[in-house]
Amino acid sequence: MKLIDSHCHLDFPDLEAERDEVIARAGKAGVALMVTISTRVRRFDSIRAIAEAYPNVFCSVGTHPHNAGEEEGIPAAEIISLAEHPKVVAIGEAGLDYFYDKAPRDAQAAGFRTHIAAARETGLPLVIHARDADDDVAAILRDETGKGAFPFILHCFSSGRALAETGIELGGYVSFSGILTFKKSEELRAIARDLPRDRLLVETDAPYLAPTPHRGKRNEPAYVAHTATVLAETLAVGNDEIAEITTENAMRIFSRIPRSALNGA
Ligand SMILES: [Zn+2]
Ligand SMILES: [Zn+2]
What we know:
By secondary structure, this protein is α/β, with parallel strands linked by helices.
């Protein structure tokens, strides 16, 4: 059984101090590959260094919506250029977060569209962060897809059913985090049950959002197995089958990851 943690933050201080151990524990838990996600283009060097240091870690490049104010105006060309590195397999995370509203909404939207342009140009999937912004995320996705298709992932999906359906309709993938395992997430599990199986991914978003039974503690990529187990139960399939489904989906959407990496070569 092989799992892929499609979204974690190995550069964050909570994981940085014992990164070797965290990555080793992931391997023991069946996590063959991890994608560590960039939140600031200006700090991409540290992300790239982590991806270069571990054969089973890949990365993205981009500006989190929280940081869209401080990184306003970074052109798509700069992101595209950084994305030439062979270990970069995605663009982002970018999108809209109206829950925290840490950056002005117009800066978030502008950054989102810049990252879409980079995804369209490179063919690498855009990792989309959406929180309390379903309608605006859907509107931008529709508008931009109209200008030219681009691959994307709705990461840490916790939005409403309509956004999931829009994402699927526009060709996107939906990634579930530890939130899927929480007792009160019945509606989220109902959404997962209804989505096409060839668009489902799992992630940790570590160090945040540890799944049950680690809820409230620091999260790490090894725990993606718990989310995968709940997704398997939700879909009434076995653990091996959900691993195969989500790993094949991840290999398809992260099209730059070589098959040999999955096999540990
Ligand atoms: Zn996010
Ligand atoms: Zn994240």
